[in-house]
Design brief:
The protein is of the alpha/beta class and 323 residues long. Helix content is 31%, strand content 22%. The longest helix has 27 residues, at 280-306.
Length: 323
C-alpha cells in the first residue's frame, strides 16, 4: 500500500496511462502540469469527468514509482514540535473508549502511535520494511507490519484506522479503503487527512502549490471527490475539518514563495537540511520575505478555514455494514 524509500531518480522513470483510480472512468480533462521538486520531472494532472478526482496521468509504473522517494523522505522534527503535533493528532480522534485499538497506516517514524499509546490506546502500524518506525518493534514492543503483511491482520480487529497524509500516495485507493473496512470492527471509524485540492491555497498555488508534490501525490482530493470515494467503499462521513496548524500556513507561504524562487520548495529544503539545489538568491529571497509572506499566509489560512476551504481535508467516517 505504501511506496518504499529510494534514492531520487537519475533518469525519468517509465510511465503508464491509467483510468480514474477512484471510480475507474476513462473520461478526464487536463487540469495542470507540475514539476517534481526533487527530480524536476514534469507530470500531467487530470480531473475525472465522473467523480471529479484529480490524479497524475500518466503516472510512473509501480516498479519505478519508488524511485521518486528520496532516502530522507521521512525527515525529522525537533522533539518539542514532534510531540506537540502528535498530541494534536490524537485529540482529533475525539472521545474514545479506554484501550481502543488503533492501526496507523503509513506511520513513518511512529510519532503518532507513540502518542496514542501514551493516551492508553492499543496501537499498531503499517509501514515499509527498513523505515524508522520498524525499530520500535524491537525496542518498544509495538506491532508494525509491512504492506505485504497487512492481509494477515485479522478482520474486525481495530476500532480506529488512521491515514495521515497517506491516501494521496496510494495508486489503488478503492482497494486500500476496502482493506481498511475489513480491518475495522462493527461501527469502527476511519480518519483520513489529505491535502485539499479544493482549498484556496491550491487555487492560488496551482502548479506551484507546496502540496502538489507530484508524482508522490498521485491523487488530489477535494471534498466531493473524497466523499464519493468514501461512499463507494462503505464509509459514512461524520465530521469534516479543513484546517491544520501543522500544514496550512506553511503550505500557503511556501506556495507563494514558489512563484518567486527558481527552485521549488526551497525554504522547506533549507529548514529540513536537504536543499535539492543551493541558490543564494532563493535563500536570501525566502528569508527576506518570510515574515510578511508568513503573516499574509496566516491571515488567508484562517479565513479559508472559516470558509471551509482550508489547506487540508480531514474526515472521520464510520464503517457502514459490509464495504
Amino acid at each position: 500500500m505504501l511506496p518504499s524509500n529510494a534514492s531520487e531518480p537519475k533518469e525519468r522513470a517509465a510511465t503508464v496511462a491509467t483510468g480514474c483510480p477512484a471510480c475507474g472512468s476513462a473520461l478526464h480533462a487536463a487540469e495542470l502540469r507540475a514539476e517534481d521538486p526533487y527530480s524536476r520531472d514534469a507530470f500531467e494532472v487530470v480531473r475525472c469527468r465522473e467523480c471529479r478526482l484529480a490524479y497524475v496521468n500518466p503516472r510512473p509504473t509501480p516498479e519505478h514509482l519508488q524511485r521518486y522517494y528520496p532516502d530522507d523522505y521521512y525527515g525529522a522534527r525537533h522533539p518539542f514540535f514532534r510531540d506537540f503535533l502528535a498530541d494534536l493528532r490524537v485529540s482529533a480522534l475525539g472521545p474514545a473508549p479506554a484501550g481502543a485499538r488503533i492501526l496507523d497506516i503509513g506511520c513513518g517514524r511512529g510519532d503518532f502511535i507513540l502518542a496514542c499509546r501514551r493516551r492508553g490506546f492499543a496501537v499498531g502500524g503499517v509501514e515499509q520494511a527498513g523505515s524508522p518506525v520498524m525499530r520500535l518493534r524491537e525496542t518498544l514492543g509495538i506491532e508494525v507490519v509491512t504492506p505485504d503483511e497487512i492481509a494477515k491482520l485479522p478482520g474486525g480487529a481495530f476500532d480506529f484506522v488512521t491515514l495521515w497524509h497517506v491516501l494521496e500516495h496510494l495508486p489503488e485507493p478503492r482497494e486500500s479503503l476496502g482493506e481498511v473496512a475489513r480491518l475495522l470492527g462493527p461501527g469502527g471509524r476511519l480518519l483520513v487527512e489529505v491535502p485539499n485540492f479544493g482549498s484556496w491555497q491550491a487555487r492560488l498555488g496551482r502548479a506551484y502549490w507546496y502540496h502538489m508534490d507530484v508524482p508522490r501525490h498521485l491523487l488530489h482530493f477535494d471534498r466531493p471527490s473524497l466523499a464519493a470515494l468514501l461512499a463507494r467503499t462503505g464509509f459514512a462521513p461524520e465530521r469534516w475539518h479543513t484546517f491544520s496548524l501543522e500544514y496550512d500556513t506553511f503550505g500557503l507561504a511556501q506556495s507563494m514563495l514558489n512563484r518567486l524562487c527558481k527552485n521549488p520548495n526551497h525554504l522547506f529544503q533549507l529548514l529540513t537540511g536537504k536543499p535539492t539545489a543551493r541558490s543564494a538568491r532563493d535563500t536570501l529571497l525566502s528569508f527576506a520575505l518570510l515574515a510578511p509572506v508568513g503573516l499574509l499566509a496566516g491571515a488567508i489560512s484562517l479565513a479559508a478555514a472559516l470558509a471551509g476551504r482550508g489547506g487540508v481535508l480531514r474526515v472521520i467516517a464510520r464503517k457502514q455494514g459490509r464495504a
